[in-house]
Design goal:
CATH architecture: Beta Barrel
Helix content: 25-40%
Order of helices and strands: HEEEEHEEEHEEEEEHH
CATH topology: OB fold (Dihydrolipoamide Acetyltransferase, E2P)
Distance between the termini: 31 Å
Mean pLDDT: 81
Shape: globular
Strand content: 25-35%
Structural class: alpha+beta
Number of helices: 5
Number of strands: 12
Radius of gyration: 16 Å
Low-confidence stretches: 1-17, 117-126, 131-136
Oligomer: single chain
Length: 181
Amino acid sequence: MRTWLLLLLCGTVATAHAGQFTGKVVAVLDGDTVMVVRNSGTPVKVRLAGIDAPEKAQPFGMASKTSLSELVFHKQVIVNSLAVDIYGRLVALLEVDGNNINEEQVRRGMAWAAEGWRHSRRAPTGVPIAGAYSNYHSNKIYIELQSDAQHARRGLWAGQEIMEPAQWRKLHPSVATSPRH
């Protein structure tokens, strides 16, 4: 009975966030996570798909958050949902005035082209639940944008101590002990 109820609740969350919607960004939590209030008034935590930004306590973490704030804070966005992650966040593409914000963070050197989501499970509604990263990034645009940022030494690529967030979290477990934003 409890399992059935849990599946029903997961399906309700996934259905509530599925598809495309518009809303206003009311908070930027870090360089790849925002809080969007849907036009219906419902707040939704959104994790930008396909990218991974430095943690706030890591070098360039606050610069990445500031960059994302410049792009989206207090702005109307279009949210194209792709999945729900293990923390219950909507994994999505964000768009402002026709600009892909996920791509722009990578272009600016404020995020990595994260390895692709492995859709290991699906909610009862058919919406993928992002369970883990795969071993490659399938979006060639993100890879090219990252390569350009690296060669131009933009953003985090200008630094000396470049470390992917997943590796940084492993080395700093006391800082990264709470669930991701």
